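Hey, can you fold this one?
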Amino acid sequence: MALAAVLSLGLLSGCAEDAQPTVDTATSSSADPKPTRAASEPSADSLASSSEDTDEEGESEEGGEGRAGSSAAGTASAMLDELTVKGRAPKTGYDGDLFKWRSDTDHNGCDTRNDVLRRDLMSITLKAGTRGCIVLAGTLADPYAGETYDFDRSANAVDIDHVVARSNAWQTGAFEFDEETLKEFGNDPLNLLAVSSSLNRQKGDGDAATWLPPNKTFRCEYVARQIAVKHKYDLWVVPPEKAAMERVLDTCDDQPTFAEDVDWPGPGDGDNVTTKEETRPAGQKSSSSGSSSSGSSSSSSDSSSTYFENCTAAREAGAAPVRRGDAGYGSHLDRDGDGIACE
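Sure. Predicted structure:
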């Protein structure tokens, strides 16, 4: 009996050991499929979490670039970011005449002032006998004011503005220019606009931090043009100037870099051109009278048959400076004999 009991207990133990692997196998194959797939494939929740992390990282990187000052390529803001920012240099040695404004730098036979007028005015009247150069009259759509003016050579209603003023240029790098670069800058069509005299004088030599056109719709283009000029000539901007430019450009929806065709029209060209003889402005004297009221007379070297009595009359007529060959030029006005009077 004892032997039978021992044998029976051994058989029962053997059956229990054989059954254990069966239970484990069944559990791993049917009772735990999800944990197995989760270990090899991300769940929907983990995919969402992973996707959110990736997006946040991407946004963070893009945001970091924006905070660093990057701008869309081809915009005025991007070009502004390329300019050096530092303090203003002293005005020591500055003289507007160093820029030789009104020189015929493109050798088309016309001085720069009349080149600007032929380009920027509408319904132009040219003076007969001047090879299509001198503008007597026209209409100006002033971009600074957003208003239209009649231009008359005998009245001083229109000026030519250096978009980046010569003084500003001098104090932001132009003091290092050689003579030819100064002359190029002073007569560059990119940097010149016909505008109303009153606003040009109001602006003076101000930069974007101290003066902007009253016509707010033109400010984006105005600032973009200033940036283009400074970029072309490797001039820098001072911190308040850059801050003001950025404030303007923030309102412009990716203002493109200024790339308009600004070249001068050829002599005789322009909008709706007509030609006529000039009527002598008040203040001019005929050389046939032999002298002015002050006793000065037109010399035989003067190429015009009339001359201004004095430089005040020339300025009031909007003709100053007056060059040898221009109507109104007289040697008594040209104190240094360089051919340019009432400078």
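Residues 287 and 306 are 5 Å apart (CA to CA). Let me know if you want another pass with a different chain boundary.
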